[in-house]
Structure formats: structure tokens, C-alpha cells
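Here is one chain, start to finish.
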Amino acid sequence: MKLKNQFEFLFVGKEEGSFLENYAYDLGEGEEAAGQLFVNVEIQNNPADAEVIAETIFDSARKIFFSDLEKDVYTRFEDALKEVNKAITAFKAETVSKFIGNIHAVISVVAGKELHLSQCGDAEAYLIRKKFCSIISEGLSDAAGEVGDETFSNIASGTLEPGDFVVFATTRLLRYISKTDYIQTMRPQDLKGSLADLSDALAPEILSKIGIIGIVFHEGLSALTDSEKKGVREYLEDEKPGFARRDRIKLNKGIGFLKGVGKKIVHYMNEILTGMTSKQMTKDKILVLLIIIIVLLTGVIWYVKNSGAQQRELERLDAVLTTVREEINTASLRGLSNKDGAAQILADAENKAMEVLNSGNLRSKANELLGLIQEEKKKLDNVVYVTNPRVIANLAEKRENVSALGMIPQAEHLYVYEYNALYDVLIDRVESPVTIDDNETVISGVYDNDNKAMLFITKSGKVIQYANGQFQFMDTDDSTFRKGVAIDSYNGRMYLLDAESNQVWRYAKKRDQYGSAEGYITSGTVTNPVDLAIDGFIYVLQNDGKIMKFDRGAMVDFAVEKAPLDPIQNPTRIHTELDLNKIFILEPSKYRVVVLEKDIQSNNAVYSTQYVFDSINDVRDMYYDKGSNRLYLLDPQRIYEVIL
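Its structure:
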């Protein structure tokens, strides 16, 4: 059975300078095979000629498409578009600037189960089918004003099915409504109700006026329920065969409610007036009449006043968002030479966009601009996304429940430790783990190059040395070691970071044990330290993202210049070493490694870039090999390699 369809026109938003119109045309009863023509068009920036241009587009398409019915539908549609393009080109030729305005339009034809369409500018066509929404006009043309000689240059074609809901719009509707809400709103069994709900959803988000055509397809009356059949019959009775339909429908639930109340008031007033004419009017009825008039006038005044105030507020918020867009563009240019200046502009733009978002109006547009702000921040921060880092080792092959904590590089080996075991990772294999101790819980480890040994600190405050294949508990002149959260070594000395006393304890190595603890920090303070790194200076990383730098125990001025716009807030690891001009900071909560460049002249660091690893959920440690320019990451089970 051939498909039947219903269609309706919708206009949403306030009147503005642009011209909008919807057209539909068919040859009438008995000529269904000829097809239907639909035109959904907006013309901006040419108020003088816009209506004539729109009429010309419609008339050119109509005349050619219906002129030779012996041709197939696609060929007739293609010929119609060629004629439309000729007409638009002729208009341009008559102007000095060759500019006739920005055209946003969808031209389409429906014949039986065939749908063919073409599009230009921001206009879009959507197909809602079985709870899925497709943008069927995607990629058909470039932006308005950039389409060259052919305004309508490509055609999309497809086969329709019963229950399909096709929508043409002069703008991109999914800017203003989520795809999920859009799909739920458009119900093929209720065309007018769907468009009314769509209008309600779009009205708070849109200031400029947009035009929409909605079309639903079914298998004819036999496939419908009784109530649906009645609606279709009423609809078809209103149509005039051979007439180019150009209705304008403005749907507003609020106004509909007022109309319902108004009917009741009018009915009651009619009864009173009837009483007056029948000389049965009493003082009570006159009083009631006066009260009704006063209430009605008050309601009208209140409605007009509040509608005007709301419109002014929408206009103000729209102006704010226009400023936001301008600031984003300014920041994009400023960022080429002045990152700090661009960051300040983006911060101001973000505050303004949040003001609009929190107002409850124009939320889609505000969210869109907030997204653009975040993208601009990422450009300024030189963010690099690493989607699939290479896995070089899977420790779970040796121990299923492994929960790795850290890595210790040594020559061609890369050792990985967990709470009680050590894994030797070679280029092509992982050795079976060796037990560090059955009773102690390891929390941090390092390789002491001067003493050719690995050092581990435990939760209970013990130090375990691993050398020549043997684990050994170390002693100190203090009888017990200070407890630490991280360990490092430099020039044969061991450094423990103590988070309880906010101190770095230094231990000198004797023959078979360590001397007494020396408090390294002599000036300045650290708060909640999480890790340390040494290159001659000692860098202490705090849990708030700050880096404290010490020279021979004294804190020195240290700043991160051109800091990332997304600040470091919950880091866990810091890595640098002698003869390495970079500082690496691991922040697992944001799936990233931040890279700083050392500035020898100022003794500061300059933010360089950041690598984001969305695919790794729980990064425990990192290591940078300066010889191969490779970054290694560790999660509870695997080691990943990234070439920088």
C-alpha cells in the first residue's frame, strides 16, 4: 500500500529581520504519483528582496518538478534544483556585491515511499524512526554564503516507512534540544501535539524566529485507530488540491489556557447580558459583571507586563551570550601571543555563560558556548589525547590478583613492585614475582645507583634493601627509621618524605647501615606532601598541586609560569632527575601527565603540555626515559608505553 502523509507548519520565536516561509504543493487528487514539493526557507540580511527570492525559489522548483511527469521523480527533482540555482544566480548577477542574503533552506519532494531532498546553510532535515533520530541532510552543503555558484549542490535520497516522522528546520534544532528529548517529543501518532511540545521546548532557548515543517507517514486509514482515522479525515478535508499551502502556525500552551478561561468568562457574561436584555438584571449581577471585568483587565495587564519583562530578560541574556562568543574569538587570537591574557578573557566569558545557564533560559546556547570555552582552554593548554597507549607488559599473566604500586628503572630492566612482591620486566617478557617480605607492606621504592641497590620503605617504617638477588632489612643509628610516604636517593644518600612532620629526612649510608636521620628542610614549610624528586634541588609535591623547591635545605622561590588553565589539584607523583630539563607530574583523577620545562635563568618552570589517557582508569606511577623519549605508565596490572 502506498504511504499517506500529514504535514504541518510551525514557526517558533519572535519576529526579526530575517524572512521565513514554509511551502507545500501537490497536483491534487488523482495525481498522487506526481509527488509533493516542500520548501522550508529563511533568508537573512536582505529584507528588501527576501520575499521575492523565497517566492522565486518555490515557483522555480514547482514549475519544473511538475512540468514533465513522464520522467522519474529523482530526475524531475534534479532538474528543479538546477532551475532554482539558475534563478538564484540571476538574482546575484543583478547586484553589485553579488550578495543576496544568507539562505538557509531545505527543498524536498515526496512521492510514494521516495524522499529526495537538498539543503543549504544551517537548515537541516531529520528522520525520526523507531526511537532513533538521523540528520538526513548532513554534509549536503557548505555554510551559507560559501556554496559557490550552486546553492543546492547535492541530493540525499531514501525510502520511507510507515511511522516515519520527517522534520525540516531552518536551523540546527539539536543546538537547542537534546537528541533524547527531541525523539521523545516527536510522536508520529500526534503530529500537532508533537509540534506544540517542540515549540514549548524550543521557545525558551530561541530568540530569532525559525521555521519548521513536520511530516508523518502512515499506510492509509486502514492502518490507523478510529481516533487517528478521524484526525486524518478532518485534516484531509481541510486541504485544497493543487493549492500551495503557506499556513503559519503559532503554538503556545499558555495562550491556549487563557483562551479556555476566556471562553468560560464570555459564556458567563453572555448569560448576564441576556439577563439585562430580558430585564432581569439585578444589582448583584451588575456587581459580579464589574468584578469580572476588573479581574479580566488585571489579568490582561499582568500577562502583557510579565510577557514584556520576560522578553526583555531573554534579549538581555542573548546579548550576554553574544558577548561571550565575541570574547571566545578574541581569546583565540590573543592566545597566540599572550596565554595569561587569553585565559582571563575566557574566565570572564565562562562566568557570563554560567550566569545565563543558571537563569534557566537559553540553556542549550549557553552550554554550547561553555563547550567552546573548554575547547579553547584545551588549545591554550596544548592538551594531547593519547587514545590507545601500547601495552608492553601484563603482570596479571604472572599473578592474577596483582595490584602494582610503582616502577623502578634499572639499566635495561624495568622493575615493578606491589605491596609484597617484585617483578622484573624485560623487553619481551615478565619474570615470575619474587617476595619482598611476608609480613611487611611496601609503599614506595627507588634505585640507589651509587650503592647499586633497590630500597623499599614499608607501612610500619622499615627499610628493605634488595641487592645481588637478596632482600635485607636495614638498620639506622637511630634504631628505627622515620616513617615516610615516598623515598628517593641522591649521591648515595636516602631521602624519606614524612607527611606527618612535613619534613624530608636524609640518611647517609655507612658500611652496612644508615646513620641518624637529618632534617633536610631548614626554612619554609610544606603541607600534605605526597611525593618528592631530586635533581640537585629537591622538589616536594603537595596534594594541592603546589611544588615546593629546596636548595641545601632552604626553600627557594619557585613558580610555574603559563600554568595550565585546568589547575593541578590532586597529583600523586612527581618525576625529574639530573640532566633532565623536564618535570613530570601525574594526576590520576584527571587521567593526565603534566609536563613542565625547567627555566635555568629564573629557576622556575614553564608549563609545556599535558598528555591525557582516558583509557587508563587507575594510573599508579609514571617514568620518563630521556634516552628514548618514552613515557611509561603503570596501572594495577599493566605497563603502558607512549613515544612523546
